[in-house]
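Q: My labmate handed me this sequence with no annotations at all. I'd like to see what the chain might look like in three dimensions before we decide whether it's worth expressing. Could you predict it?
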Amino acid sequence: MLISGLDTETTGFDASAGHRMVEIAILTYDVATRTLVDKYVQRIDPDRSIPAAAQAVHGIAYEELVGMPKWEDIAPVVRAKLEACSVVVAHNMGFDGPFIGHELLRAGETLPGFEPFCTMENARWACPDGKFPKLGELCFALGVPYDPASAHGADYDVQVMMACFWAGLDRGFYRLPALATVTA
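A: Here is what I predict for the chain of 184 residues:
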């Protein structure tokens, strides 16, 4: 059974308001062995400017994206990679899932069928005050090394998030969705 870790970097928070993705990472693992079997990391030309506030978070300038594929060019690849997985893990699935869904539909693609899992929404235990943890806080709680200087790069964020996911499974903090445990 395959499981993917997912992260996006965007020009803003609302795809329906014209914000777009500037980077996506989908790292796919074999659940039984926890072996990375596929890695897809792509920067995307958003066909729009990147507000200073968004650029301050992920550090990606529009000039770096000139000549990169447009979303419409890679949407079929993204949909196929997500469709191939039983479970897709994200650290803020409530943001990444709908954003990607909106963008897939905008590009004329169908929505992939997978079970979503959010390492943030399922980790209130990681913070003393019970809030949703930032990725760095989750890493701290699970003893996963975290480099703030590398944070908000989609590839790096997925790598440390998946390390947290596996550690959380091992410690009983997370449970694979029933769909995954039947086929794992």
